[in-house]
Structures are given as structure tokens and as C-alpha cells.
């Protein structure tokens, strides 16, 4: 089990290039099996979750050939199995996209229930409600979800709750249904738009992705396509917050600044200097940080996936800050680890009350999930002294070359096998 040894009080200065979006990649790759053809996906992040999804594709009968570290050729011609029932599938939550993709193409799918991060219950009832609305019969037995349909018929679906996964999964299945499907109260995240754009390149007919009403006109066949994944909004936000918490001066490159608006506004409110350019943002923190209140919401609100990272930052801002987590039931398990570093935080249900402290102190901490792990690194970079972070395997699921990118900015992080 790898761990990271982090020397504290390192001011980050320089440039960092952001990789492709994990949550787009883990939806686009399963979508490729809907085409009886070859796709080339560019700007893929080199992370564990992508490798895991590629292993699943290969076990289903598809071929994954890397042209280079970030470019993948996906050949899904010929026989693709509709049963994704092996252990890779249980490793990550995004495996549920194989349900929508296989149901769309073969009108049947058997997928082992996904695993994923351990913050609260992560139901997929909204996904299954969408598939049933399209005419599928769903059976859940021994940890498997089995979906079958003689025909998938387009219909109108109102999402009880905004759900990224359910929105994307229904788009996948509806892309090859008969007739028109309308999804109302749809998720508007950039990775929803990215998946819809890729499907349209494959010959699908999807309009309105990025708004709360998405209209999909089903087609008989999809063909392979070449597609470039968008930059990762959450990785970019993690490095922007890293610059702020270390009093640094960092140019975060290869991003879509519009995607960062909610964080940019919050950092500005906290007295951090932000300079926006076409495909980069410069973050300079050379003044005392002001406390602030953060409410996580679905896009374009403040992303829940930056909640642990901003909690680390608010821990060292003067005054009291409040975070309200509105997306997940229980996304504060990392707080205990932050408290080991000296943070003063009290949790009341979905609300975290943070009393800023002058400085954190290095300690031995654990990553409880992917984004919590990133937050531990940010806190350790700002803390006095050395910290040891266990559970790096979580961090590797979603961050490419994380210690190399931080060390290139002046950090001192050593990975110990
Ligand atoms: C995606 O998860 C992301 N994962 C998560 O990022 C992210 O936190 C989340 O969206 C919210 O932005 C991927 O894209 C692979 P949801 P997803 O469906 O789709 C409830 C990361 O760190 N819900 O939008 O699973 C659910 O419990 C990960 O990259 C249902 O009740 O999230 C939650 O409270 C962590 N029933 C809320 O909706 C359902 O059928 C939002 O979940 C589905 C969801």
C-alpha cells in the first residue's frame, strides 16, 4: 500500500497542466461499445478508474489499444458480451454506465452492482426508473442488475432528483431507443455535455445537454468516432485551491475557465487574486485569506467533489466558515483526518462549522476517498512539519501523476511503496 510523505509549508509557484476529465472518461469509454466500430478517444487521464473501465471493455470482447499515454483506440466491432459480471465492475461506481450502453445496443444487460467511494449510500434507483420508463424489465439479484427489453420506446422522464449518473445512463439507453425521449430536471455537469457530444459524433441525435431538458431522438445504429475529452474541472479546482492554501502563485493550464466559475467566485471572495485567460487561470494568494460560506450544489453550483479540498482551505482562513453539503448524505468522513492536522471543525448533519486556525500541524492521516485524499495533500502542504498520507490508492483513481505535478510546483512529496 503506497503512502505519501509530504513536507509542509511549501509555497507552490509555477504552471500545472490539467489532464482529461475522469468523470467524462468513465462515461465516454462505456459509450464506445454502443458502436459496431472503432473510436479514438484523446486527452484521456492516465488514472486507475480509466484502466479499470478499459479492463471491463476487454472482458466484454472489445479491444483497447493505447496509441500513447492519453490516446485510446477502442475497437468494439463484432461480438460484445452483455454480461459485465466480473470483479473489475465492482471496483468503481461508473461501471453502472455499462447498463445503459449494453441495454441501448443489445436491449439486454447484466452488470454487477458498482462499488465506488464510501461516503454514504449510493443508490441507483433513478437510473433503474429511467430504464423502466423506456420499457426495460429490471431484476436485481445476488449483487447484479439485469435489464431486458423487447424494445426501448422513447418517453418523457422527470428526474426526482438531479443525478449525473442517471442522466448520462438514460441518455445512453435512449440514444438507441425508438422515438424521442425527453429528460427533465437533467444534470448539467460538463461531463454530461461531453458524453452527449461524443454520442452525437457517433451518429446519435441529442439536443439540450447542459440544460435541464435534454431531448434524445433514438437511432438504429451508432458508428465509431474520434473524440477529445474535456479538461478535468475537479483536478483543476484542486490545484487552484492548492495555490490558495500555500500562499502560492500558480498558472493552472489546459482548462475551460467557465467550468471553474463557482470556485473562482469563492476564491475571489476569500481575498485570493484570480486572473482568467482563454484556457488557463492564474491563482495568486499573497494576502490573508478571508473566511467564507460554501454550499455544494449540482452544476453550475459549487461542486461537491471540491468540498473536502475547500474545507482544508477554510481550516486556515481567519474566522468562522460554514460548509453545507447538499448533494451527498455523508461526505464528512475525512473531517476526523483533518482534525488530526489541527483543524477546528464541528459537524452537524450536512453542515460543517469551521473555525480557522493560524496553522495546521503535520500528522499521519488517511485518505477516506478520492477527493478526501486530495484534501489531505492540500492540508499537508500548508501544515508545519511532515505528514504521512495513507490510502494513496484512492487518490490514484482520479489524479494523474499527482506527486509529480505538485513537486514541479515546488512541493516536496515522496511516494513510498
Ligand atoms: C457523479 O456521481 C460523480 N461520479 C461523483 O464524483 C460526484 O460526486 C457526483 O456525480 C455529483 O456531482 C462520476 O461521475 C463517476 P449523482 P453520481 O447521481 O452520478 C442521489 C468523484 O469524486 N442519487 O449525481 O453517482 C445520490 O445518492 C465522484 O469523482 C439517488 O438517490 O452522483 C446523491 O445524493 C465522487 N439515486 C445525489 O443523488 C440515484 O439513482 C447525486 O448523485 C442516483 C443518485
Structural commentary:
- The protein has 417 residues and is α/β, with parallel strands linked by helices.
- It contains 14 helices and 24 strands.
- Strands 22-23-1-24 form a four-stranded mixed β-sheet. Strands 2-15-17-16 form a four-stranded mixed β-sheet, with helices on one face. A four-stranded mixed β-sheet has the order 4-5-3-14, with helices on one face.
- α1 (22-31) runs parallel beside α7 (190-201).
- The mean pLDDT is 96.
- The structure holds ligand EPZ.
- The site of ligand EPZ has 25 residues, from α1, α5, α6 and α12.
Residue share in β-strands:
25-35%
Total of DSSP H or I helical runs spanning 4+ residues: 14
| Beta-strand segment tally | 24
Average pLDDT score: 96
Short description:
With 417 residues, this protein is α/β, with parallel strands linked by helices. 31% of the residues lie in helices and 26% in strands. The protein has 14 helices and 24 strands.
Task: Offer a few descriptive terms.
24 strands, 417 residues, globular, binds ligand EPZ, four-stranded mixed β-sheet, alpha/beta, single chain
Amino acid at each position: 500500500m503506497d503512502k505519501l510523505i509530504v513536507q509542509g509549508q511549501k509555497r507552490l509557484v509555477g504552471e500545472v497542466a490539467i489532464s482529461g476529465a475522469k468523470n467524462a472518461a468513465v462515461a465516454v469509454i462505456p459509450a464506445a461499445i454502443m458502436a459496431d466500430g472503432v473510436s479514438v478517444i484523446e486527452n484521456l487521464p492516465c488514472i486507475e478508474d480509466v484502466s479499470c473501465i478499459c479492463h471491463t471493455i476487454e472482458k466484454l470482447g472489445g479491444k483497447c489499444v493505447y496509441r500513447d499515454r492519453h490516446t485510446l483506440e477502442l475497437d468494439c466491432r463484432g461480438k460484445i458480451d452483455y454480461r459485465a459480471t466480473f470483479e473489475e465492475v465492482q471496483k468503481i461506481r461508473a461501471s453502472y454506465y455499462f447498463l445503459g450502453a449494453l441495454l441501448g445496443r443489445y436491449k439486454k444487460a447484466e452488470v454487477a452492482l458498482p462499488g465506488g467511494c464510501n461516503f454514504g449510500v449510493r443508490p441507483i434507483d433513478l437510473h433503474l426508473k429511467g430504464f423502466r420508463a423506456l420499457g426495460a424489465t429490471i431484476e436485481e439479484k445476488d449483487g447484479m442488475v439485469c435489464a431486458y427489453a423487447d424494445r426501448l420506446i422513447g418517453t418523457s422522464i422527470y428526474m426526482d432528483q438531479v443525478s449525473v449518473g442517471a442522466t448520462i445512463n438514460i441518455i445512453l439507453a435512449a440514444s438507441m431507443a425508438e422515438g424521442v425521449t425527453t429528460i427533465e430536471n437533467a444534470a448539467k455537469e460538463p461531463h454530461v455535455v461531453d458524453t452527449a457530444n461524443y454520442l452525437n459524433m457517433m451518429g446519435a441525435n441529442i439536443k439540450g445537454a447542459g440544460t435541464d431538458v435534454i431531448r434524445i431522438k433514438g437511432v438504429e445504429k451508432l458508428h465509431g468516432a474520434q473524440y477529445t475529452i474535456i479538461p478535468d474541472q475537479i483536478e483543476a479546482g484542486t490545484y487552484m485551491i492548492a495555490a490558495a492554501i500555500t500562499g502560492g502563485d500558480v498558472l493552472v493550464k489546459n482548462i475551460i475557465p467557465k467550468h471553474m466559475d463557482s470556485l473562482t467566485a469563492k476564491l475571489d471572495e476569500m481575498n485570493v487574486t484570480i486572473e482568467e485567460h482563454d484556457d488557463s487561470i492564474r491563482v495568486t494568494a499573497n494576502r490573508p485569506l478571508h473566511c467564507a460560506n460554501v454550499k455544494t450544489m449540482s452544476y453550475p453550483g459549487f461542486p461537491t467533489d471540491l468540498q473536502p479540498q475547500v474545507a482544508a482551505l477554510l481550516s486556515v482562513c481567519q474566522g468562522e466558515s460554514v460548509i453545507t453539503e447538499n448533494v451527498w448524505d455523508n461526505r464528512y468522513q475525512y473531517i476526523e483526518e483533518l482534525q488530526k492536522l489541527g483543524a477546528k471543525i464541528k459537524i452537524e448533519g450536512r453542515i460543517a462549522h469551521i473555525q480557522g486556525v493560524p496553522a495546521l500541524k503535520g500528522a499521519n492521516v488517511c485518505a477516506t476517498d478520492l477527493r478526501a485524499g486530495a484534501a489531505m495533500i492540500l492540508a499537508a502542504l500548508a501544515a508545519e512539519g511532515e505528514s504521512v498520507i495513507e490510502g494513496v490508492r484512492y487518490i490514484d483513481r482520479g489524479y494523474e501523476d499527482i506527486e509529480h505535478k505538485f513537486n514541479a510546483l515546488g512541493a516536496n512529496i515522496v511516494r513510498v511503496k
